[in-house]
Specification:
By secondary structure, the chain is mainly β. Helices cover about 5% and strands about 25% of the residues. Strands 1, 2, 3, 5, 8, 9, 10, 12 and 13 form a nine-stranded mixed beta sheet that branches.
Length: about 280
Amino acid sequence: MGNSKSIEFCPKHGRHCLGPLFFHKGVLGTQVCLSLGGRRVERNRETFQNGLTFSSRPVRVQEKIHLRVELCDQHWSGALRLGFTSIPPSSRGPLFPPAMAIPDLTTTDRYWASPVPSRLNMPGAELRFWVTPKGVLVYEGPNRVRYLLLKGVDVRSPLWAIIDVYGQTRAVLLLGSKQKRCNKRRSCPLPPPPSVSYEDSCMCVNNGHPSCTPRGIHLPTDPITNTQMDSSAERDLVEDCAVCLSLRASVVLSCGHRCLCQCCAVRVTTEFGICPLCRQSIR
């Protein structure tokens, strides 16, 4: 794969090391700050957006990026968004990055991102995501079940990871990465992460208060693997509109995704003409 051949191994730790992996220090959303040497990113608690971050280097095909959710604010709707881009983050202009990955980035060529269900992103939850050789974005949640998030990622060019600290997700910690081939390859060793602090999160559901998310986001229960996917895993991954995140997704697009409410479907069709999940043309 062009992606794999374009990235050198770490000169410090040898050929089985993928090199250091942090959040990109030069390209950050306007409402986030980095700590722990670029491993931890936290968004301003007064907003739900402007939390876009990227990996510090291109990541390989099948390189599983390992994150831990640090803080949550359940009074917001939606949660973490994950994906990839083949455009170097540092090559963009001074107004980059925009407020949100979806739809600000995903309506642009060479950006792929998908929402992750709020219920799988509680403080302390560990998750992994990666892209397969066939261009499938795969998510593995804390329940260790894998889900197909979207297809169509172009793996012929180097890819940077997209981590949008959005909505209920206020802070995440990067725990490293691992690529499993003939030998397991990992990112540079990191010191043990500090313990998760639960006191600074706003867990209004657990405190007996109603969540501000109108409806839960549900994933199919069918697991998938890197080599074979059950067709039932390709059903719609979200029930809330992927754009407004407040109304139920009721419109089925020509690509088969049910990801937009009626109002947003009109706007997306008129202004962009592509599905916000897979970016196929809307017919």
